[in-house]
Amino acid sequence: MSGTRWLTPATGYLSGYTHTLNPYTGCSFGCSYCYVRRLPVALFRGEPWGTWAEPKKGDPKRLQTELRKAKAKGSVTVFFSSATDPYQPLEASVKLSRTLLEAMADEPPDFVLLQTRSPLVARDIDVLQRLGRHVRVSMTVESDREDVRRRLTPSAPPFAARLKALAQLREAGIATQIAVSPLLPHSPGFAKLLAGTAPRVIVDDYFRGDGSEGRRSRSLRMPEAYEQAGWSDWYTPEAADALLRQLQSLLPEGATGFSVEGFAPPP
Ligand code: SF4
Prior knowledge:
The protein is α/β, with parallel strands linked by helices. The protein has one domain: pyruvate-formate lyase- activating enzyme, CATH 3.80.30.30. It has twelve helices and ten strands. Strands 1-2-5-6-7-8-9-10 form an eight-stranded mixed sheet. The chain has a two-stranded antiparallel sheet with strand order 3-4. The relative contact order is 0.13. Residues 27, 29-31, 34, 36, 84-85, 117 line the site of iron/sulfur cluster (SF4).
């Protein structure tokens, strides 16, 4: 069996975590604003980002050994996943993320943030319940406008399906949050919808969330994409500031967060 190491030391934007865990290389969702498009994994592949995704080779059960060793050295906090979505369409049959979660349930890290935009995560409620207080599911919901999703991230699951999965997770007692990341053009009732669906909401944008003060988003030609859609008024940090203020008025203190601090593991 290959010597794949599942845990990678976290750096940069995610340095609040000790490790990242990416079960797949590539990502079928292919969001237009995805920063991974500019990373070597995407640039050297020679195929357009969003057209390929494959499971990493290696024994997922080895994660348990890696976790045991890492825990012997101190606190272990895992961001799952940073360069792919752990619930690729392929995951429905491959079940690699599920097996990795099972390994984590057997040797729990202090905390794992399961970051996804796929309702398939609700399939694994039983394993997430075993992880209990060690896990929080963070569902990306960047807007409530399907016309916006179809234009900027057409291969990602519809927002309504994500919200439904979140409700199922919450009902099953799993800790959840919504990551509005990056914030996209949305309806006036968006903040209310978010506050009514999750106990915690994190907001991020193209300017403070790309780890380069907006340069990566500019290199992905996001300002041009907004201009072509007639959405230039939305391409400003004030949009995220305004949503955050609305959310703060609707949710209890401490239940909202912004960018890096919002995504950080609990103290
Ligand atoms: S789901 Fe995440 S990793 Fe996949 S393309 Fe979208 S932003 Fe990139």
